[in-house]
Amino acid sequence: MVELKTDTSIDAMYEAGQVVARALTAVREVADVGVSLLELDELAHDVLRAAGATSPFLGYRPSFAPTPFPAVVCASVNDAIVHGIPDGYRLRDGDLVSIDFGAKLGGWAGDSAISFTVGTPRPADVRLIDTAERALAAGIAAAVVGNRVGDIAHAIGTVCRTAGYGIPQGFGGHGIGRQMHEDPGVPNEGRPGRGLPLRHGMALAIEPMLIASGKDGYHEAPDGWTLRTNDGSRAAHVEHTVAITEAGPRVLTERR
């Protein structure tokens, strides 16, 4: 069931979204060669504590997971697409890093992700991340009253496929509100004019995931969480929480 949020509730979601934005900004500023993924996780946890917010990631255990998620961020490096578990790995020059983070504040959730390079960037990685951001922007632009979920999926998929990138099937965006994951699902590829109509008060986490090689294959790592590309190619993941309003899409996790 899709819950339509009131304008007051959307404002409250914005506050949660801004906690997410601050944490991701802080992580991006600190991430550098030699910094560990656990240090990035602890920094994000500090932002949560300072805001009086909680983590929807920590302890989360969906049906596919063998264990509860043990951190407040997902930290996915190089060939990891999503759901990477932070550990003692120290960032190296040229790494491509995706950080996914959520916060819950006042009963409402926010969810967002960024991808970036550490140290000396590879041109191919810069292009991959730029395309992911363009796909996200296209998805957000399609998130308007009167369109359908398929229009968002089509906008994202068109950008990704035109650039020659792969899309991991079965993983994409989702509704969000009182819980991090709500209906409806928001695929990263689809047919325009199909799916649930978009209405004022819907809130969606829109999140393109791109595989550099152009192939779609991925597998689950032994930890039961991390998804990795089958061919070892790099991946990027970006995400915003967006409210559908009569005035147009409102990005609740916008970073300033």
Automatic annotation (TrEMBL):
GO MF: initiator methionyl aminopeptidase activity
Catalytic activity: Release of N-terminal amino acids, preferentially methionine, from peptides and arylamides
Known EC number: 3.4.11.18
Keyword line: Aminopeptidase, Hydrolase, Metal-binding, Protease
UniProt key word Metal-binding: yes
Cofactor(s) this protein cannot do without: Co(2+); Zn(2+); Mn(2+); Fe(2+)
Peptidase M24 domain segment(s): 12-246
Domain of life: Bacteria
Signal peptide: none
Residues involved in substrate binding: H83, H181
One Pfam family this sequence matches: Peptidase_M24
Gene3D superfamilies referenced in this protein's UniProt entry, alphabetically: Creatinase/methionine aminopeptidase superfamily (3.90.230.10)
Binding sites annotated in the UniProt record for a divalent metal cation 1: D100, D111, E239
UniProt binding sites for a divalent metal cation 2: D111, H174, E207, E239
UniProt enzyme class: hydrolase
Annotated cofactor note: Binds 2 divalent metal cations per subunit. Has a high-affinity and a low affinity metal-binding site. The true nature of the physiological cofactor is under debate. The enzyme is active with cobalt, zinc, manganese or divalent iron ions. Most likely, methionine aminopeptidases function as mononuclear Fe(2+)-metalloproteases under physiological conditions, and the catalytically relevant metal-binding site has been assigned to the histidine-containing high-affinity site.
Role summary: Removes the N-terminal methionine from nascent proteins. The N-terminal methionine is often cleaved when the second residue in the primary sequence is small and uncharged (Met-Ala-, Cys, Gly, Pro, Ser, Thr, or Val). Requires deformylation of the N(alpha)-formylated initiator methionine before it can be hydrolyzed.
Binding partners and assembly: Monomer.
Family: Belongs to the peptidase M24A family. Methionine aminopeptidase type 1 subfamily.
Record protein name field: Methionine aminopeptidase
Organism: Streptomyces hokutonensis
Gene: map
